[in-house]
Amino acid sequence: MKSQKKYPSGISLEFFPPKTTEGREKLLRVRDRFAALKPVYVSVTFGAGGSTQQGTLTTIQDMLAAGLDAAPHLSCIGATSDSLREILHGYQALGVKRIVALRGDMPSGMRETGEFSYANELVEFIRQEAGDHFHIEVAAYPEFHPQAPSAQQDLLNFKRKVEAGANGALTQYFYNLDAYLRFVDECENMGLQLPIVPGIMPITNYKQLARFSETCGAEIPRWLAKRLAGMGDDLAAIRAYGLEVTTDLCRRLLEAGAPGLHFYSMNQFEPTAAIWQALDLPTGV
Question: What share of the chain is helix, strand, coil (3-state, %, to 5)?
């Protein structure tokens, strides 16, 4: 963890593009409340194969309008050089300075990845097209990507993204501190020098979390799963215990030297804000 302690600590957030007018209005209210906390930046997700490209763009514009540093997610699966070039130029024109570069999931029915197959190729393309204009974040998987053939191969894939020009990394969420600490140590052993910010998922609904975790490959430790499952449908108890567990994880991460936290907000204010308050984080950390 020595390498991480030299980077400034910052708090960032992730949103997803709303699909309805009502959802957008709700997110605008959430945006304004988060803006008062002064996160370093906010990121906005991108659908597989560009399915939510317009939604991402609209949401990025909404974030910029509130004075927030906004980072669009950019997926390369199913994309072409021309389409990515157009998107990049559009974000440059808006004044976007940061991008989260991802491989992305294969859209339903698609058999071929298209012109780009891996995130390192996307990072290389961004650097070719825009030089150092964008600060590029990439994904990291402390518990390893569910499609990776081996842990070592996953680490090598991450190394390729860094060597292609990534400035920083955001991890998949996790609840096992050792997974993150060991991942960072292994990156250091490979000579990788960049901030690796842990992703944090607030716990509000165990059944939903379990389904989502099964899909994305994030492990819920047995002790935590058993405790949450035992609470049944008592959402108040789940949220209270989830706040306790997640706050403790965040505190231990920061004490260990993690360069900040990246909250998967799920477009909700209260769960993330409760952790923020419990950690007694000042605004603009």
Answer: 50, 15, 35
CATH of the domain at 187: 3.20.20.220
Residue 223 sits in which domain range? 2-278
The number of folded domains in the chain is 1
CB neighbours (10 Å) of residue 142? 23
Structure-token pair, residue 84: 């990515």
Segment 194-224, tens digit of pLDDT:
999 999 999 999 999 999 999 888 999 999 9
> Is 163 assigned a catalytic role?
no
Please state, in angstroms and rounded to a whole number, the distance separating the CA atoms of residues 71 and 64.
Answer: 10
Global pTM reads 0.94
C-alpha atoms less than 13 angstroms from C-alpha of 46 in its C-beta half-sphere: 25
Q: Residue 215 corresponds to which tokens in the numbers above?
A: 């899909």
Annotated catalytic residue, options 14, 121, 124, 143: 14
